[in-house]
Specification:
The complex is a heterodimer of chains A (410) and B (467). Chain A is of the alpha/beta class and 410 residues long. Helix content of chain A is 34%, strand content 15%. An 8-stranded parallel β-barrel of chain A has the order 1-2-3-4-9-10-11-13, surrounded by 8 helices. In chain A, strands 5-6 form a two-stranded antiparallel sheet. In chain A, helix 3 links the parallel strand 3 and strand 4. In chain A, helix 3 crosses helix 5, helix 5 packs parallel to helix 6 and helix 6 packs across helix 7. The longest helix of chain A is centred in the middle third of the chain and has 26 residues. In chain A, 56% of the residues are buried. Chain B is 39% helix and 16% strand. In chain B, strand 12, helix 7 and strand 13 form a beta-alpha-beta unit. The longest helix of chain B is centred in the middle third of the chain and has 17 residues. The radius of gyration of chain B is 23 Å and the shape is globular. Chain B starts with 10 loop residues before the first strand and ends with a helix. The model of chain B has no long low-confidence stretch (mean pLDDT 92). Classes of the chains: A alpha/beta (410), B alpha/beta (467).
C-alpha cells in the first residue's frame, strides 16, 4: 500500500462539505434568533443535537471553535466588557469527545491551540478522540497569539500583534515564531501518534509480554520551544494519523498548513480570488518542500440562508440591527437561498477548491438550511454523497492510509 | 426499611485498572484496555450498580526498568479527559473522576477542562490531584525538568487553589440569556481573575461559565504525611491503600483530625481505599480463585521485576522459584525503575521486612512478592464480601471503597450482580440515584465552598500552628 503514489481517492463529483460550529452561530446576534437556545450552549444536548443534524446532512465533519481567551470585539486585545453577546465556551476537545459515542459517521474536529498547551497532552487527547469515535477525529490547529491569553498561563509574554502584522517587521517576527512553534507541535504530535506501531500490543502468553517494545519508539523531538521524548502513553489511534486542518489567510499560515496539515481552510471573497489563493497554497507547499499528499483546500464561507434572496438579506440585516453593527468576517459572507448556495459551491469547486467549510450565521437555523436545503440540491446535481459509504474521516476526505514513519518496511 | 435509612451509606467507586499488574491480561476473559467499548461497559456496569463514581488513573511516561520500556503488564492507556467526556454521554448519574497531574499541567487549562467536564456531565466531574517531581516524566513536557521534592505539594496546593479561584470567577447566575432584552451576561466582568502566588502569577478572564457543582469534587491520592496534610487542607476525599481494619481506623482518624484542624467538618473529607475483591460461590472457592489470580498477577518475570524495584539491582539471573538474593539492595546507584514512585520507606528496611517474611513462611521470590504486593483484598462469597465491606465502614476504617477488579471490562459485573443487592438489602447502598443529583450530592459533600474560604482555612491554621 505504501508503494502507491499518494492520490486522492475522493470521487470528483463529491464536493467536500463541513460546518464550523461556534456558540449560537457566527453572527454576534445569532443567540437572539427565535430558534436559538442560548441557555443551552454549555450542555451536551445542545452540541449533540447540532452534530446529529450535521450527520443527517451527511457532512464530512464538524469543527468546534475554541480559544484560550474570552470572546471579544477587540482584535488581539483584551476581552471587552460587552454583555449583549455570547461570552464563554467549553473546551472543544472535550465537546468532541462527548460527541464521539452519540454520533456514528461524521468527523469531529475540535480546535486545539498550540501555543500554551503541551504537545504530549494534545497528542493523546486527539488520539483518544479517534478511539472514542472509531476513526473520526481531526484537529483544527490554532495559534494563540494574543498577549492577554499568555497571561492566563504566566509562563511567557507575547507582544501585542496588530491587525496589519504582515507589514510590521516586529509583529511579523512574533507571528513567525508562533507559527514555527505550531509546526513543531504538529510534528511532535504526529510523531507521538506513530510512536506505537499498529501491532505493538501482542499479549504473548508464551513470553509473558503484553507489548513488543521493539514496536514502540522514542520520538526525541527537539525544538527551540520544547522537546518531547516519547513514546506516547496512548497506542496508535485507529486512523493512524487523525486529520490535521488549519485556517490560513496569509503566507506564514499557508506555510504552516503546507508543513503540517492535511487540509487548509482559506477565505476567498469571490470566485475570482480562488485560483490565486490556490496558487499561493501550492507555492507555499513548494517553498516548504512538502512531500506526500497535497493539501486539500476548502473555502470558508459564512452563510445566512433563507427561502428567498430577499428573506436571507432581510434576516442578515435584522441580525445586524440587533447587534448594532454590520456583520464582519474574515470569510466571505453569503446571504442567499440554499439552492443558489449549492450552485455557488459547484461553481467555486470548479475553480479548483476541494470543498467548503460553511459557518452558519445562526444555529440551528442556518445549519438546518444547509443539511435540508443545500445538501439535497448538491445531491441532485450529482455533487454530493447520498449516504456515508466510508467510515473514517480520512476516508470521507479521500486521504490515503497513514503510513507509520517508524514501522520497519517489510 | 425505614429503620435502615439513617445507617451509614458506603461510598463506592470503581477504578478501571490501567498500567500495572492488577489486570490479568492473560485471562481469556480479559478485553481491550483501550477500546471505548471497554470503558462504556465498565461505566454502565458501575451505573447499573448505583455506584458513586468511576475512576481513571493517569501516567505521563511509559515506565522503564533497566533502561527498557516495561513490557510485561498492561502498557498504554487513553487520555483521561477524553474518555471521561465520552463516558458522560453514555451515563447519566455516575461520577467521572480522573487523575490529572498538577506538575505537568497549568491551572488555567485544567480548570477549563474540569469545568467543561462538569458542564457536559451535569455535575459529575472529580479531579484526583497527583504530583510529580520526576525529571524522567518531565522529558515529555514543556516545563521539562522537575520540581524539588519539597515543592511538589506547595505547587499542587497552589494549583488547586488557583483552579478554585478560576471556577469562582463566574457567578452561577452570570448568564442571563434574555433574547428580548438583548442581555446575555449579567455583567461585563464575568470570568475576571488574578492570582499572584509563588508558583503561578496569572490574570485575565476565565472562559468557562460556572459548572453545576461549582467546584468539581477534588480527590487526593497518597498516604504520606504531606499527602495527608494536602488532603486535609484542599480535598474532598483521599484515596488510600487499605491494610487491616485497624490500620484503616488509625488512618481515617488521623486524616479527619487533620481536617478538623483546618476548621473542617471531618465528615467532609471522605476516606476511600482502593481494594481488590474476589468472589466465589463459597468462601473456600473464592480463596482458591484468589490464590490463582494473585499468581497470575505476579508471573515469574513480574516477580523478578518487582523485586528488582526494591533491590535496585539487575536480578534477571535469579530463579523466581528460588530464595531471595543473598546480597543487600543497592542504595547507591540511581533507581533501576523510572516512571513510578519509589518505595516510600527506605529500601533497606523494605528488604529486611521481605527477608523476615520469606524466612518465617519459607517463601520463594515469587511467593514472597505475591504475599507482600497485594492491595487490600476482600475475598469470599458475595455475602462474606458484603459483610466485610460494611464492617470496615461501620468500624470507621473508611467511608467507602474504590473497587479495583482484576479483569476489564467485565470484572465489575459479578460485584454489581451479587454484592450490590446485598448491600442495598441492608441499607448500606442506595436503591437508586436521586435523578439529577450531582456527584457532590451523591457523596454527601457540602456545596462547594468558595476558594477564599479554602485559602482562609489554610492561613488560619498556619497562624494557629505558629502561635
Amino acid at each position: 500500500m505504501s508503494t502507491n503514489p499518494p492520490t486522492l481517492s475522493r470521487p470528483s463529483e463529491n464536493i467536500g462539505l463541513s460546518v464550523a460550529l461556534d456558540g449560537a452561530g457566527w453572527h454576534p446576534a445569532a443567540w437572539r434568533e427565535p430558534a436559538a437556545r442560548p441557555a443551552d450552549l454549555f450542555s451536551t444536548a445542545y452540541w449533540a443535537d447540532l452534530a446529529a443534524e450535521a450527520e443527517r446532512g451527511l457532512l464530512d465533519f464538524v469543527t468546534i471553535e475554541d480559544s484560550l481567551g474570552l470572546q471579544s470585539d477587540h482584535f488581539g486585545g483584551p476581552p471587552d466588557s460587552r454583555t449583549d453577546q455570547v461570552r464563554g465556551r467549553l473546551d472543544a476537545a472535550l465537546i468532541a469527545a462527548a460527541l464521539g459515542p452519540v454520533t456514528s459517521s461524521i468527523g469531529l474536529v475540535p480546535t486545539v491551540t498550540t501555543t500554551h498547551t503541551e504537545p504530549f497532552h494534545v497528542s493523546k487527547s486527539l488520539a483518544t478522540l479517534d478511539f472514542v469515535s472509531h476513526g473520526r477525529a481531526g484537529w483544527r490547529v490554532q495559534v494563540s497569539s494574543k498577549a492577554h491569553e499568555a497571561e492566563h498561563f504566566g509562563r511567557r509574554q507575547i507582544p501585542a500583534i496588530g491587525r496589519n502584522w504582515e507589514s510590521d517587521d516586529a509583529s511579523r517576527r512574533v507571528v513567525r515564531e508562533l507559527f514555527d512553534e505550531a509546526a513543531d507541535v504538529i510534528e511532535a504530535v504526529r510523531r507521538l501518534w506513530d510512536s506505537w506501531e499498529d501491532d505493538a500490543e501482542i499479549r504473548d502468553i508464551a513470553t509473558g509480554r503484553f507489548i513488543d517494545r521493539g514496536k514502540l519508539h522514542y520520538i526525541d523531538f527537539e525544538g527551540p520551544a520544547f522537546s518531547v521524548k516519547g513514546p506516547s502513553i496512548t497506542p496508535r489511534p485507529p486512523q493512524g494519523q487523525p486529520v490535521v486542518t488549519a485556517l490560513a489567510h496569509a503566507q506564514i499560515p499557508y506555510e504552516l498548513a503546507a508543513r503540517g496539515a492535511d487540509l487548509v481552510f482559506v477565505t476567498p471573497q469571490t470566485v475570482d480570488e480562488v485560483p490565486g489563493i490556490i496558487e499561493q497554497v501550492r507555492s507555499a507547499e513548494a517553498s516548504v518542500a512538502r512531500t506526500g499528499t497535497p493539501l486539500l483546500i476548502n473555502a470558508d464561507l459564512l452563510v445566512v440562508l433563507d427561502h428567498t434572496e430577499q428573506a436571507a438579506r432581510d434576516r442578515r440585516h435584522r441580525l445586524d440591527d440587533l447587534a448594532g453593527s454590520a456583520l464582519q468576517s474574515d470569510a466571505a459572507i453569503i446571504a442567499t437561498t440554499p439552492e443558489r448556495l449549492a450552485g455557488l459551491l459547484i461553481e467555486w469547486a470548479d475553480a479548483g477548491l476541494d470543498g467548503f467549510r460553511l459557518r452558519p450565521a445562526a444555529l440551528p437555523t442556518d445549519l438546518v438550511a444547509i443539511t435540508r436545503g443545500v445538501v439535497p440540491h448538491l445531491q441532485r446535481a450529482g455533487a454530493f454523497r447520498s449516504g456515508y459509504s466510508t467510515t473514517s474521516l480520512r476516508e470521507h476526505l479521500g486521504l490515503p492510509v497513514a503510513v507509520n514513519r517508524y514501522a520497519a518496511i517489510a | 426499611m425505614s429503620n435502615q435509612t439513617t445507617r451509614k451509606q458506603i461510598i463506592l467507586g470503581a477504578h478501571f485498572p490501567g498500567v500495572n499488574n492488577t489486570t490479568v491480561w492473560r485471562n481469556p476473559a480479559s478485553g481491550s484496555q483501550i477500546d471505548f467499548a471497554s470503558f462504556r461497559h465498565f461505566a454502565q456496569t458501575a451505573e447499573r450498580g448505583k455506584l458513586d463514581f468511576l475512576f481513571l488513573a493517569e501516567g505521563l511516561r511509559l515506565r522503564e526498568q533497566r533502561g527498557l520500556i516495561h513490557d510485561l503488564d498492561v502498557v498504554g492507556r487513553p487520555d483521561t479527559f477524553a474518555v471521561l467526556a465520552a463516558l458522560s454521554s453514555v451515563t447519566t448519574q455516575l461520577g467521572l473522576a480522573g487523575t490529572i497531574n498538577a506538575t505537568f499541567n497549568e491551572p488555567y487549562e485544567v480548570a477549563r477542562q474540569f469545568a467543561t467536564l462538569d458542564q457536559l456531565s451535569g455535575g459529575r466531574a472529580a479531579w484526583n490531584v497527583v504530583t510529580s517531581s520526576d525529571a524522567f516524566t518531565g522529558e515529555n513536557f514543556r516545563r521539562g525538568g522537575f520540581l524539588p521534592h519539597a515543592q511538589r505539594y506547595t505547587r499542587a496546593r497552589e494549583h488547586v487553589q488557583t483552579a478554585r479561584e478560576l471556577w469562582d470567577s463566574w457567578r452561577s447566575d452570570a448568564i442571563v440569556a434574555d433574547k428580548e432584552a438583548g442581555q446575555f451576561l449579567a455583567d461585563g466582568t464575568a470570568g475576571a481573575f488574578a492570582h499572584d502566588g509563588e508558583h503561578f502569577k496569572i490574570s485575565g478572564r476565565f472562559n468557562v461559565p460556572r459548572s453545576p457543582q461549582g467546584h468539581p469534587v477534588v480527590f487526593q491520592a497518597g498516604d504520606s504525611s504531606d499527602g495527608r496534610e494536602f488532603a486535609a487542607q484542599s480535598a474532598d476525599a483521599i484515596f488510600t491503600r487499605h491494610g487491616t481494619l485497624e490500620e484503616g481506623v488509625a488512618f481515617t482518624r488521623d486524616v479527619k483530625a487533620r481536617a478538623r484542624r483546618y476548621g473542617r467538618d471531618p465528615d467532609d473529607l471522605k476516606v476511600l481505599p482502593g481494594v481488590g475483591f474476589i468472589l466465589g460461590d463459597t468462601d473456600q472457592e473464592a480463596a482458591e480463585i484468589a490464590r490463582e489470580v494473585r499468581f497470575e498477577q505476579v508471573s515469574p518475570q513480574t516477580a523478578i521485576l518487582l523485586l528488582e524495584q526494591v533491590w535496585n539491582r539487575d536480578l534477571s539471573s535469579y530463579d523466581p522459584d528460588g530464595p531471595l538474593p543473598a546480597e543487600d539492595p543497592d542504595v547507591e546507584s540511581i533507581s533501576i525503575i523510572q516512571g513510578r514512585a519509589r518505595q516510600v520507606d527506605g529500601i533497606l528496611e523494605t528488604a529486611r521486612r521481605y527477608r523476615r517474611i520469606a524466612e518465617e513462611k519459607n517463601l520463594s521470590i515469587r511467593e514472597l512478592i505475591v504475599e507482600v504486593t497485594g492491595r487490600g483484598l476482600f475475598v469470599g462469597s458475595a455475602r462474606t464480601v458484603a459483610d466485610e465491606l460494611d464492617r470496615f465502614v461501620l468500624a470507621g476504617a473508611s467511608d467507602g471503597f474504590i473497587l479495583v477488579p482484576h479483569i476489564v471490562p467485565f470484572g465489575l459485573d459479578g460485584f454489581v450482580d451479587q454484592v450490590v443487592p446485598l448491600l442495598q438489602e441492608r441499607g448500606a447502598l442506595r436503591e437508586d440515584y436521586v435523578p439529577g443529583a450531582t456527584l457532590r450530592e451523591n457523596l454527601a459533600l457540602p456545596p462547594a465552598a468558595p476558594a477564599a474560604h479554602w485559602a482562609a482555612r489554610v492561613r488560619d491554621n498556619a497562624e494557629e500552628v505558629a502561635s
